[in-house]
Amino acid sequence: MVAALLVLSALCAPPGTPSTGPPPVRVDVVAIHALDEPRSGKQYESGLEGVKAALEDLPFNTYRRLDAANVSAPFNEDTIVSLTDRHRLYLRPLSKEPHDQVRLNVRLHMTRKPETGGAPVNAINTTVIAGAGRQVKLRGVKLDQGELVVVITLQK
Question: Are 150 and 138 in contact (CB under 8 A)?
Answer without folding.
Answer: yes
